[in-house]
Amino acid sequence: MRIIQRAFLLILCALNIQNGQKCRLNTRIHFEEPLPVIVKDGQLLEPTDSYGDIELNYGDTITLSCEGTTGLHHPNAKQHLTVATVTCEGGEMFKNDEWLNESSRFSHFKCTSPPEYKSKRTERTCYDKNPVMEVGYSIGSEFYPVYETCFNEAGLHPIYSKYTQKPYNSFYQTRVDRPYFLVDDIFGFVPVNALFSPEGLKSSVEDRVGPVINEYFTKHQQLSRGHLAAKTDFALAFGERASFHYLNCAPQWTGFNGGNWNTLEVDLRTHIHNAGYNTIIYTGTFGISQLHNEHGRLVDIHLHMDENNNPVIPVPMFFYKVVYEVSSKCGVVFIGINNPYFTQAEARNMFFCEDVCRDNLDFSWLSWHPNNADEGYTFCCTIDDFRRTVSHLPNFYVDGLLT
Ligand SMILES: *[C@@H]1O[C@H](CO)[C@@H](O)[C@H](O)[C@H]1NC(C)=O
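Above are the sequence and the 2-acetamido-2-deoxy-beta-D-glucopyranose SMILES. Below is the predicted complex in structure-token form.
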């Protein structure tokens, strides 16, 4: 009798442990492509610790969506679905008895092709009464934004993209294919894809400068599609893909794009991880790049003339990244010159706020080469000082310099 009782208790214990088991997933291990859009508690799924782990309680439910594709793809599917919920059963196992004939490893949840992202105009406005556009995913009647962009509707260019960076962002999902850039109604009939192609970018500049084009477009320097929010600024595949939208894109010289700007992106993610920061980022563009034309005169560089003969889609003079840490209310701005054809003296003249990074040991985490023309001249400033020249940012209180 006692033996039976004990056995019964042991079984109960075993069941209990099983019932209490959490699910644990990691951005670098369990997420396979093409990954569905994943929603938990009404928000896009994000890691729950600093290392890209996502912990769910036993019985927690998440939604998987492949909207805009032919649907979810799973070897054990009993019926074809585009959106499904699955429930955590512990470890990396999830179930949905209506959809699947047995429990499934998380890594088996895939779409037939990458889900479709899109933009949505909000009721909100930003700098100069321009619209705030959100880029993200629709599931049914709900829209889930990945980031938002303050977009200059007359000049057809992004002012800034706003998103968050947290310690987990340095553990973004790897091996995510780059989709094509998406165009939007907001560009009207402007042939954005053609203008941003390598040939389109070159011929737009050639239209402004004439035969000296080959002094600017060389083996080492061309214009390219520059992301504001970078692909790897987002932790999971659906976020990374959504960065490929022309609302989040500006013409950027390749040396700068792959040089100091890339170094800043990588170093900043690592630093935010190490320091445990919870930040809001505004990555934006400012000013219009100029080049000397065949007659030696400085001309503004735009990609296109609209139907009223107004220049649209400028090549920006500066790219900037405002970093605001939410708990300390400290901030800093990193700025780069998007033009490799200045001397160091000319570039120094363009620094419109006091450079607080140079020779400052508090920024030793930043490994860019601020005096390198090919990689893009760079500097950084306090947010207050930056605001004296660039009036793009919404109002928020800044308590001091973020290092
Ligand atoms: C579920 O379906 C798959 C594919 O049809 C099959 O290989 C597997 O044996 C099934 N499992 C169960 C428990 O019926």
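Residues 75-76, 101-102 surround 2-acetamido-2-deoxy-beta-D-glucopyranose (CB under 6 Å).
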